[in-house]
């Protein structure tokens, strides 16, 4: 490993150091605030080092990793999400029953796993990244272990994740058996020379899709989503919704790009069927949902179905669409969970929809923020969600994938109903005040409000002026291609 | 650039209303009124400046403004007006002013946010009428949706949630299909010419295969006929119109329905001429079905606002039939119908709102003999009922007459059927008049006749409808330049 390769890995090393630093801080009996601030600064340092090493990219670190613009883009997005999640975690956990300090070790380890996924070019790093991500999540989901749903959610996630990891390994083994290599580009070469994909490869990929589908909560591997979103503390749920899914989607996209899977008809059929079922069931399951956390879980199933439509073309337009969609989705969902966290009472999360009745007249700021986020999820103009959906539709229409595109349109109309249901609740007449007993640390409340403002401005900015970010995405994706 | 200012004034006026209402609740309506009046003044100025040139037949487009918006997709902020847009914008700000005025007393709670939504709806509508980039058009098409939804949802009547959902979901469903069509057109045009653009003028040059043209046109058509509305897609309309606050009904009936007609004239006919000719017979048929069905349903209603809503279905049937007759004279009738229907139906909704303010009901059976206590209102109501049933001298007569004259050349049978709509319209109009204003007095309360503010609203509307009936040529001259 030469100097430049080490430079390229610097951000990931800083990220790995973050967990160790937190462990040391705990050993020296530092408080929650110190840990929180240090964690925040470490994440800023990661972003700074990414900026610092931008010139040495792309670097391939044989055989496991490749640090290119694509990886940097998704890692940057992941770190951004962690910054926001960390900020929200502070006010959430400061008021809760559990000691929150070990929480940050797990969050950073998990982030490291997701970041490794975005730069992996080999089955080994793929698997290590995925396991690092999941193992920390088991503990994170059940972190508030005295609550009823938490342990149930944690165990459910643990069992299913372990099972699907086994499928993933088996699938990798089958592909290794077929191609004789675990390196993405070597597999691609092997496939390229073969006349057509062998049944072995097809079987292997399908088994891998089970694990990936589980992580992305795609139908029919979505059964955990609602329970885990409900049982996990909201910061962790937002972490699962953003960081974990971005990482897994990034590796799936890279794998598909390397292997030119889009030319493989049967695999594309599998994926478009999964996409369509995800869009349909996600939206239909959310329709009558009265619990806002479960509702967001079902809506995320639908959204990753939409995202797979952008995945289908496999050209640069599709990748751009997926990247933009993920950015828009991450910002939106962070806002939604941020509002839930701000409104949560000490011993109970603000998850019943009835709690949000008339919120607009009580707390106009929070309500508008939530309404904007929901409109963005529904894909209404002036928000980034609209441009994202437009981008995805554009990729789909260009590929003439009519069936998935029509399903996308029809299910978004269905989906509109439940987003409007929440919005109309926000604007309803009778208001039930949400009680907040005590306000700890005004600085962090202010910081969370500021974060929400920034996120909303980003959401509207990307929605009205997407030209400010699209060239940036394109430029990133060009590095290393 | 002046066109952009039209929209900016409304958007910033809306924001201002909302912000200032926190400290001075009374200020909001004044700001709103000033914003709409400012726009009306700008537009009248444009009319005076360019009106002459139009008559002389120089250039179709009076003002154009174009600037890059999202260059990587070939999307530009391209707005322009011709005669048709000018007339519709005039209608927008005329009715917009009246909408602000008739909310003056009705809206007591949360006035700031109310006027914010009102102005933003108007901004979306004016954007639709000036956009010449298909992406921009879709953008405004959706922008007018959310504030209108909130208007119905927050300030509507009892059944408002249901009505608001239905309105939003119907429109959005059509809108997304239109978006698909826009995208297909974009890619077909891009593949042919090598330059990817959403610009109206570039897309006009697209060569489409008949089958492709048919499907793409259907996407546009569905969006527009839902808004118009055409009969199988009309069911959102009675709910939305009857549950919305008065100003909301006024804008829905007077302006939002017109965006559908405008879309067909501006986009469907030029972009897919042959495909449009192919479906002309069906479109006319559905138009005629709409005329008769709307009239019959109106006759059966007991809720005064639902009744007026169904008359809209009937009147917009004339618009659909007229457009697809493909005759110059019918098209002139269509434009007249758009304007006069906006004014006459708008006026009827304003009257219904005034009655509701006094009687607190929309049920016709609880009304009766209102003429005795409110002769002035009765007189105005009589005027607009007559306008709605197509009495000569009033604007609607000219419009429907021209449409029927045009369609007669295209299809005799359908024209005969459409004409029966006029008879039915007499039925429902007279029934409404009799039940509400004539007959025995049912309400024991002492009712006040129209106030000065209401007088201003109704007088402007009355003058407008009579002027349109006597001098229809003014409107046609402005629009004529398009042909």
Give the topology.
The complex is a heterodimer of chains A (481) and B (483).
Chain A (H helix, E strand, L loop, with lengths): L2 H25 L4 H21 L6 E3 L3 E3 L1 H26 L6 H19 L3 H19 L6 H32 L4 H10 L5 H18 L8 H7 L2 H26 L5 H22 L5 H20 L4 H28 L15 H4 L1 H15 L5 H16 L2 H25 L15 H23 L5 H9 L3
Antiparallel strand pairs in A: 1-2
Helix pairs in contact in A: 1-2, 1-4, 2-3, 3-4, 3-10, 3-13, 3-18, 3-19, 4-5, 4-10, 5-6, 5-10, 6-8, 6-9, 9-12, 10-12, 10-13, 11-12, 11-17, 12-13, 12-16, 12-17, 13-15, 13-16, 13-18, 13-19, 15-17, 15-18, 16-17, 16-18
Chain B lengths: L1 H19 L6 H30 L6 E8 L4 E7 L1 H21 L7 H20 L3 H10 L1 H11 L4 H34 L6 H4 L6 H18 L8 H8 L2 H26 L1 H6 L1 H21 L3 H20 L4 H32 L10 H4 L1 H14 L6 H16 L1 H26 L14 H19 L1 H9 L3
Antiparallel strand pairs in B: 1-2
Helix pairs in contact in B: 1-2, 1-4, 2-3, 2-4, 3-4, 3-11, 3-15, 3-21, 4-5, 4-6, 4-11, 5-7, 6-7, 7-9, 7-10, 9-11, 10-11, 10-14, 11-14, 11-15, 13-14, 13-19, 14-15, 14-18, 14-19, 15-17, 15-18, 15-20, 17-19, 17-20, 18-19, 18-20, 20-21
Describe the protein.
The complex is a heterodimer of chains A (481) and B (483). Chain A is mostly helical and 481 residues long. Chain A has one domain. Chain A contains 19 helices and two strands. Chain A is globular. By secondary structure, chain B is mainly alpha-helical. In chain B, 76% of the residues lie in helices and 3% in strands. Chain B has 21 helices and two strands. Chain B has helices at 2-20, 27-56, 83-103, 111-130, 134-143, 145-155, 160-193, 200-203, 210-227, 236-243, 246-271, 273-278, 280-300, 304-323, 328-359, 370-373, 375-388, 395-410, 412-437, 452-470, 472-480; strands at residues 63-70, 75-81. Chain B has a two-stranded antiparallel sheet with strand order 1-2. In chain B, a hairpin with a 4-residue loop joins β1 (63-70) and β2 (75-81). Chain B starts with a helix and ends with a helix. The mean pLDDT of chain B is 89. The interface between A and B is medium-sized, with 28 and 32 residues.
